[in-house]
TrEMBL record:
Keywords: mRNA processing, mRNA splicing, Repeat, RNA-binding. Belongs to the ESRP family. It comes from the Eukaryota. PROSITE patterns: RRM. InterPro entries: ESRP (IPR050666), Fusilli_RRM2 (IPR034980), Nucleotide-bd_a/b_plait_sf (IPR012677), RBD_domain_sf (IPR035979), RNaseH_sf (IPR036397), RRM_dom (IPR000504). This is RRM domain-containing protein. The keyword Secreted does not apply. GO terms for biological process: mRNA processing; RNA splicing.
Amino acid sequence: MTACGFLVATSGLQNAGLGSDETDIVLLGYALVDMTRNQVLGIQEYVIKPLSADINANFLSDEVQVETRLTEAAIRTSGVTLSKALSLFEGYCSGLGVSPYSLTLVTDGQLPLRQCLHPEAANKDITLPLYYNQFADLRKEVPSMYASDSVFTNIADILTFLDIPNSEDTSFFSKELRDMVNIIQRVISDGHKFTANESIQLYLEPGICSRDEEVDSNCVVRARGLPWQSSDQDIARFFRGLNVAKGGVALCLSPMGRRNGEALVRFTCGEHREMALKRHKHHIGSRYIEVYRATGEDFVNVAGGSNNEAQAFLTRGAQVIIRMRGLPYDCTAKQVIEFFEGGEKPCSVMGAEEGVLFVRKPDGRSTGDAFVLFKQEDDAPKALSRHRDSIGVRYIELFRSTTAEVQQVLNRTMETPPAPLPPPMITPLPQVALLPQHIITSGTRKDCIRLRGLPYEAQVEHILEFLGEHAKNILFQGVHMVYNSQGQPSGEAFIQMDSEASAAAAANLRHNRYMVSFGKKQRYIEVWQCSGEDMSLVLSGVQGSPGQGAAPVPPQPPPPAGDGIRWTDGITAIGPYIVPRMPPPPVFYWPYASPPVSPPPAAPLLIMCGEYPIEGWGFDCLGNVQPIGLHTSA
């Protein structure tokens, strides 16, 4: 039986911040101690060369240089890749006659493995040996061994508790590794044997949440800014190293039933949730993800279900759920099974016809959606390879789905819609949350871009996908969609970038490029660089060419209350329509926080009339203009 003290250092923050800044590992340390004889078998350190070493002259933080005595020069000359270091350690163990699979890893806290090694290995597609999935935590083992209520935050605390002097050994990069050896030997000499009490879950296990289930609010987070195509396994991979509860990823859907880039994630304990919060603004590909606290009620509202048919469907033990969209309304389960059994990569539906669940409306009519079960994870890529293949004359869209999504979709489709309200005498103004002009932007710096020619079906996620790598340079709440007077998309959007250079690059490289097609038509998008002042001129009703200055139009005063205002029909163009006694159709700007997606702040109702904001006027239930305060909702 061999204990292995394990140490990790990254190029950034250390101690309590280890792994929270998503920096690469630069040092792995191993100390092998025979627990039977309490003898040190060997100590090894491996210097890791991060990707940033060839890009940045100064890639090491001051903190890591003090803690480990590492230098950039040493890393560039003697550093190896992470996968090579892992392989070298296995070879070292073999040379000592010790099987690495018999080791019990001992760490100083949870962060070295959970927040550093496992996330980085997942990002670099490195498969870790199984012995890295279990470990003993010194900060928990020592209080348990000595029946103490002490809380330790670092190695120095444990040394003080055990009355062990600090090591003066300078033969290692990290002095802490030698201190860990002294602690391990003291604990073993006092009769303690280390066992791997901590385990790391590699894959998300399926599970079902009912509407009546109580979920601990200390175990739930909300992730925002997710790529729309992300599956529950992708999100679990983002949180690799932390243990997600069974069925603990609930993808949030928009009112239209499509994924909105958010997910609720439930962990097995509050400790893992706190570590998940430290992954705020870590990345999936080029997208950074925001992570916030959420409540158990939030999770149940999304993932919980009470549909008996769904419960029976989801308890069959399938590893993979595929959502089908665009099915013919008369499609049968037999046709679905034949669809997946055909093609170059056939796969079998689990449970035959019982593994197909059609989504229907309360009156029994088909919605064109279905969920299909597959037994093994290996079936997922085979099934998804049939994406956009046809059943009859209809092409079928396929998506990886989750138990929570099945319940969300069925909950919504089976709910009886409320009776429609009688139409008002005069059609009221659409209730759209508006962002006041003074909050959006100002100035002459050309750090904005203007998009024109967007498909009316385009959502924020499509714009972010269209911009590609330029999307990472968008400011918080920097995407503003333009809507017409009926609350419909006008095909335009303003986007605030983090600099003029970012705006220029986006405009130069994306102008007249095609957006993802909707239906049979492809749309090229016009992209111009513009300034905050240009944007404000448009908002204030001054017309001009995209990206250019504009000539002002004389302002029109707001009409008096109760004047019987009528609104013209049709798409609202950029710029004012000055008609005596008839204000123009308003131009609505819907603020989207992207990336990542965050809820916009509450904003007062603000309607643009020419270049006058009607800050003291609103609309009653009949559509008549009435005076209101700036912070009064109408």
